[in-house]
Amino acid sequence: MADSLVIVESPAKAKTIGKYLGSKFIVKASMGHIRDLPKSQIGVEIEKQFQPKYITIRGKGNVLKELKDASKKVKKIYLAADPDREGEAIAWHLAHYLELDEKDACRVVFNEITKQAVKDAFKTPRPIDMNLVNAQQARRVLDRLVGYKISPLLWKKVKKGLSAGRVQSVAVKLVYDRENEIKSFVPEEYWSITAHLMKGNASFEAKFHAVDGDKKELRSEDDVKEVLARIGKSAFTVSDVREKERQRHPSPPFITSSLQQEAARKLNFRASKTMQVAQQLYEGVDLGPEGTVGLITYMRTDSTRISPVAQEEAAGFIKEKYGADYVPETPRNYVRKNSNAQDAHEGIRPTSVLRDPDSVKTYLSRDQLRLYKLVWERFVASQMASAVLDTMTVDLNAGPVQFRAVGSKLKFPGFMKVYVEGNDDGSTDEERLLPPLQAGETVKMSKIDPKQHFTQPPPRYTEARLVRTLEELGIGRPSTYAPTLETIQKRGYVAIEEKKFVPTELGELIVQLMEEFFPEILDVEFTANMEGELDEVEEGKEDWVQVIDEFYDSFKKRLAVAEEEMKEIEIRDEPSDEICDKCGKPMVYKMGRFGKFLACSGFPDCRNTKPIVKDTGVGCPKCGKGQIVERRSKKGRLFFGCDRYPECDYVSWDKPVSKPCPDCGGLMVEKRSRGNVQWHCTACGHDENAPEAEEAAE
User: Fold this and answer.
1) Residue 640 and which of 84, 168, 218, 308 are 20 to 30 A apart at CA?
2) How many angstroms separate the Cα of 143 from the Cα of each of 43, 257, 476, 556?
3) 137-184+459-565 in CATH: which number?
């Protein structure tokens, strides 16, 4: 008969741990939280020191009965929820329900689900950490105060269904501010001059650098003509050659935010998908003869710390696989400057580096394998020697005009043999090799290529960029990034166009109202400082009730002013030229979650609605009768379809191109990958660079 009951969050985790602990342990899953604040009310007793009013989550009755029955059959109960604030809170709620003393050693935590880690954890159980519980409660209460106090005000003054949140409001404002930057951006003209040079059969390029030793900016065509006149028919002579060795160091192991960013860049994963797949890898995968094993360490972490045991295993693997030269002289340690790093955790790494992706690929789904490979390669690279590059900088004179050529050659690959971090713009570190050159020698000029350019506005936020920005600003924490991005899309405050966030009209309206009446909620510094105070609650340095009280004291004054001064905003329907095809009445433009849409003016008698479509000017390749138009999915994502739907069901995520395929005349669409834009024929597969891609390359 079993002596102990172990409670975890999920059945997958229960299955994995159950195999390690043996028959003396019953392992059950709570299926996440068992108690929460009610959805129908604020659930916080403000006058009683902000005490939360918890209720049992609907539908948990059978789970709770099963846990209660199991608890009566054992001598000891262990609470083994995830090792973070949320997990600690789940354990505390379970202890309350099962009438356990939270000061007893009932809490078990492990950062990886492997046999050794789990068995070691059960040797050192501890009491529930109330600092962690209070930090979670404080965040929950704070979010309730903001959301449940501002949202009804917005319903009353603007429109039902609107809401505002602490972290999500800042995220929407970032998107909104970036869009305004783009709209107000004034392009500035500038020019470049590239000299195409030859030494023997080797060709290379040099860029204009200076005139008479002084750097000169080329702002106009006249500036270019002046430089070209100074060059005249002068020969290109090498004036200086500088060679040096440069080291390039590996990136640290993943933390939550960097994993989400890199998975977006390299795997095209949304933040929510990355966390979902990472959870599966953490909780355990059946590896056949080896049994069920957790493949990665806990994936919600700010820490880049790596255990000495994992470092030692990695060093041995690297030496055997790649050679002693690939092992650094001393193990690499990555200490983050961020004081909020949860250093009880580690960085995200494979639980054993010996399980390389090839050895487990038959047991993993495609997405699991791709994410595991990313984690495994990043960790292995982080423990490898630096790459060594030979760099060469060559200055050339053409009369009084100086040009400069820069090249590099990989001398020793080091960590780059395994992994190189991606970039948000999709660019790669291509080597530009230069021929052997010496000062005083003359090279042949094949052509001089002046080009006009214009400065570009800042780019819209991708998921990766927005996560990175939130992290850099200290807004939110590892567990909040993915749900925050999901929430602002579900509520219709932002939409996605070409994998980038754009604010909707609804989002713009919310930001404008929040800026006027609740500026501190949108203030980046205020929000970051609040996160810092909540972290101090976690460390036992601050009392959570006092932190909330200080915030609420000024917040309630803002609420009173907003209640009094915020004018009711009537979002009037705009007339349109469209006629309802169901009742014949004119249709009007209404504002919805993802912007405007067409609705019958006869509502509620007629409930006909239509999306506003934008004609692309490209004919439908499927039916040959309709036109391809822009549409939006229910989640606000842009896609393209035939305007004769439902008669014709042609749809595509890729934007159609008006130019037909030069090979077969078929439909060409835009394909974007890692910053590159190509036109791809949907009929014959022909590919060519889009004009904007060719210009960018030049």
Assistant:
1) 168
2) 11, 21, 12, 14
3) 1.10.460.10
